[in-house]
Amino acid sequence: MIRLALLTIALALPAKAEELVAGLSQNRVAITADFSGSEILIFGAIKREAPAPEGALDMIITVEGPKTPVEVLKKSRHFGIWINTEAVEVDAAPSFYAIATTGRLFDVLSHTEDLRHRISIPKAIRSVGAPPEVGEATRFTDALIRLRSHAGLYRVDARDIAVTEETLFQTSVALPANLTDGAYTVRIFLTRDREVIDAYTTIIDVQKVGLERFLFNLAYEQPLIYGLLALVLAALAGWGASAVFRFIRI
Predict the structure, then answer these.
(1) What are the pLDDT tens digits along the chain (250 aa)?
(2) How many angstroms separate the Cα of 175 from the Cα of each of 97, 99, 181?
(3) How many CA atoms lie within 13 A of 68 on its CB side?
(4) 59, 43 in Cβ contact below 8 A?
């Protein structure tokens, strides 16, 4: 009876007028010794059971790296020396965040929808508060965005999504070489008249492999062994260089 009731309710719910169907060129990125970045192709279609509704159709795609706490420091000059004078800890900031759109972000998305779905870069960063002695704490979040934007880790690519006949879409997102490994969340939003009408989410798994993975795990799981190994390798490198120089002098 319960299953029958649930089926009846599901059949009674109205079907979405437009629904996203999407895919990625790859769902896994391997970071190796010669990794210089990667490019992910994101493509798909808009499925409809009826003719397209009226209103301007647009799309937004975000790729978000793992979120971690970040301490943002402010330096001030005292007696000719630059020292850290203020600090704010941002609770969770994406290690990488890219936005692709069919137009300028707030031409295709309302501020209300941005607040609801946390799409823009400032909304993707969670900063609960700052110490009472720190004034205008938003300056620290702005500084974090500015620094990571200059490093190519945060960016907005307006008009970078190609939509064909309001049905097929595609774009590509370049992942830089300095990626943090972990799960990268891809979100695709379909909007009409700046309102989100459907969304699709998937994951890209970014992992170090081979020697890089071994050293990474060793550094975090066995730091003492990692430190001793680093000292041994440094000593061997020094001895090897000394032996080469002695051989050259002979």
Answers:
(1) 445 444 444 444 455 789 999 999 999 998 887 788 899 999 999 998 888 888 889 999 999 999 999 888 776 666 667 665 677 788 899 999 999 999 999 999 999 999 999 999 999 998 766 555 555 667 888 889 999 999 999 999 999 999 998 899 999 999 998 888 899 999 999 999 999 999 999 999 998 765 555 555 556 566 766 676 677 777 777 777 776 666 676 6
(2) 10, 12, 12
(3) 12
(4) no
| pTM assigned to the model | 0.76
Question: Per the structure block, which two tokens stand in for 108?
Answer: 């295709």
Q: List the one residue out of 45, 83, 249, 246 whose CA is nearest residue 165.
A: 45
Burial of 234 (0-12, 13-18, 19+ CB in 10 A): exposed
Q: How far is CA 13 from CA 7, 16, 196, in A?
A: 10, 9, 19
23, 71, 185, 207 from 91: Cα distances, Å: 31, 9, 18, 24
Q: For 116, phi and psi rounded to 5 degrees?
A: -70, -45
